[in-house]
Hints:
The protein has 381 residues and is α+β, with helices and mostly antiparallel strands. Helix content is 45%, strand content 20%.
Amino acid sequence: MSEVLLSLYQGVREPDGWLAFQRHLSRRLRTINSVLSLRWPEGTRPGLLYTFNGDAARLPPTLRAYAAIDPFVNIADGRAVRLHDLVDPAEFRASTYYREWLVPIGVEYALGLDVREPGRFHARLRLCRDLAAGNFTSSDCRFIESLEPHLRLAVSLYSDLDEAKTGRELYADAMDSLTLATVVLDEHGRVIHSNRLAENVLRERDGLSLGNGRLVLSGRDDGRRFRELVERAAEQYDSDRPAVAQAMRVTRPSGRPAYELVVRPSQPGSPGEDGRLNARVAVLIGSAIAEHPRPEFSVDAVRQLFGLTPKEAALALRLARGRSLKQAAQDQSISLNTARAHLRAIFAKTGVDRQSGLVGTLLKSVAMLAQSPDAQRHARR
């Protein structure tokens, strides 16, 4: 316990020390992944996001959109909550969110702790286990809750020290830095804010568009499903009860890879919460494949960039070309379990924690290699 607390307080002056805190938790609780995120009110400062999955890695700003797909919504302050306490396990395993977002990284169980200081900060701690480790116990929950006052104090101290040297930023600017297209809806499902990536997606009218101030899905079934998710998210916002984010895929008439949508209640401080328009629902559009040009891929280049094995590099590039994990495994004549093991290794080496983030990272990195030396020097400047 002394090592856990020491590493937690070291994070006050040296934020990367919080990775050591996560490492100690991983050893004690047998987790395969953990995330610690810090958010400040109304986008006044850039947030912080740390992930630990065996190899400590602080996520770069381009991957901070990970926090937007957190499945825990409106959980009680200072209480450790298991994901299966929020939703029926059978229903959860049948959900698109589970199949498309959690299965690829081997996550079966999750535990969340939120610490809030109104007007100051919102800290989230998320711990994940695989099926073999079993679900978190009541004892595990009590242990995490025993850390709550220390986490609250550590983050409070860090906030005080950081406030003096951090400039204010508008929420819209923060949204425009996300790698996910983001749209915010009011209580009637009308669009009240969208970032630049979302505007680009809607302008293409390829499965998603804007009509009469609302999001329009070209597929009838997709449209019906989307309206159901929006209504559910709006109800969850008004109820102020814990909720789980919902996910779905949107077919694109062009035949390009489907969009991945996450629909969840909006967070406090979203654009539109000014007394005239009320933000209720946030829609995150996974469109990394569509937003970057497709360079010519090189297995050797990817191996050199990220230190992957030949099989890991081949799998990563197949995923970047739009193949599903199952299809990529069949292409390489390997089992799905082997492909999942490769994917976990890829995540650890690239510092990302989900498949869409991996695709964006590869596309950007390989595109950079494809540039001339002069172009690369100009891009770095």
